[in-house]
Amino acid sequence: MPMGATMPFSKFNVDPEHVEAMRAAFRRVCDVLQLHCDRDDPITELIVTKIVELARGGELDPERLCNDVMAELGTTSRGSPVRRNRPGTSTGAREEPN
Known about the structure:
Elements: H1 3-6, H2 19-33, H3 42-56, H4 62-72, E1 83-84, E2 94-95
Antiparallel strand pairs: 1-2
């Protein structure tokens, strides 16, 4: 099944003009995580839901959508885990590896 047929954005009430950015972000996340992102896969639902939430919040840049979803999943857009500072050592903000 081609990936275009597996992107379940149609069940969400989103602006049609935003769908292409959301699809691009979805493809990027799936590529980075090396997922097939089939409709029946629970991770697909999670990824799509996060993308829709971010797009509804105003973010429409596919790369930033991807990066934000990856950060929420605990990884970076390069596929490596997000490093977190230990409590009390810094601000506790997420950092990307060098």
